[in-house]
Amino acid sequence: MADVFIAGTGVAGSYLGARLTLSGVDVEGVDSQDVTKYHSACAWATSIEGMRERLRTLDVDIDEYVMREANGVYVDLGGTLHYVPTRHLATFDKPALIRRLIGKFRVKYPVRIRGMPDASSRLVIDATGVHRIVLGPADPGTDFMLPAYQLRVRYRNPPMEDFYVKPFPRYSGYLWYFPLGGGEFFVGAGDLHHMHLEYLSEFLERHAPDDVLYREGRPIRISPPGVLRPLARRPRTVAVGEAAGVVLPILGEGILPSMESAEILARRILQDGPEALDVRRYEEELKRKFSAFTAAYRFVRRKQSGTCRATDLSCIADAFRLALFFASSGGRKLTGLAPKLEHVRLAVSPF
Ligand SMILES: Cc1cc2nc3c(=O)[nH]c(=O)nc-3n(C[C@H](O)[C@H](O)[C@H](O)COP(=O)(O)OP(=O)(O)OC[C@H]3O[C@@H](n4cnc5c(N)ncnc54)[C@H](O)[C@@H]3O)c2cc1C
């Protein structure tokens, strides 16, 4: 029996498994997919600078996986098109990176977990993303999901060469168009009010692709570690990655945050030992690291429900916190965006 058992080897589980194994911990992972053909329902966009730094620990070079680097992102605010220059935003071959990380430790597949595995004496990690198969459903009112759907398409004459996003009113979601290179793109949308398929059809009617390579959909968890409960169950079962809610609510960005959460957990395990993991401390570290996500979540939810008014001090404080995060080096590293003040204002202003 391994010291650490990881259920789910997406970005969070595979990073954690590789990191701990390279540090001498006995780890076993399982995944319900045939990992030799690993697939990830995701638009594969991330901050290459942040990934470069994170993957250095594993001696993996993210540049080997980059598909298309952005010069900037067009932000379509219904009529006005803003161009936000980027420093390190890119799409990358996420399944290939995950297969590489999975190759660094012991993983059994395809093995579908259906609850708590029969391994009560070891540390069990729930890295099954949105499913939280081991921990089970979150406490009522603490979990929040955004439905999302995307297509991988090919254009002979693409409508735009660069990245493009169209936020929906009151932060209910947004549409994305991300280049993958070779004329291929992910075009998708997520919307709280389930209008995303309509927005998507509208875009695809205006910009009909030559080929649709595949379609996929799944919800994105946007409730952060400061809201989602529980993040762990005693004696030793803890969540990491999207199972712990580490997705930036305003952008749906979960790849790098999931790896960051895995790094926090890896350090804790290495310090305490798998048998004596200080679960409470891990939870606190997660909440602290992703406290800007909590402000973003409160702000977005208040905007969505129309209860964030210009005189509401708590909402203004959250908007301010979010603006600071976007302008900070941590925010830039996480999002790959290098916004100017006007862009930061744009990100947190009502429309
Ligand atoms: C449409 C869409 C587009 C997105 N685009 C982006 C983007 O461009 N950039 C970005 O940063 N984020 C994006 N995200 C969010 C991002 O994909 C996730 O937040 C991130 O992948 C979470 O990683 P994870 O390892 O925690 O979970 P996951 O990637 O979901 O991995 C969970 C793993 O658990 C396995 N599993 C599930 N159930 C079981 C079971 N019963 N037994 C065993 N194994 C199981 C799965 O096979 C999978 O390998 C997007 C999400 C969606 C839905």
UniProtKB/TrEMBL annotation:
Name the InterPro entries for this protein.
FAD/NAD-bd_sf, Geranylgeranyl_reductase
Gene3D superfamilies, per the entry: FAD/NAD(P)-binding domain
Origin: domain of life: Archaea
Official protein name in the record: Menaquinone-specific polyprenyl reductase
What species does this protein belong to? Answer: Conexivisphaera calida
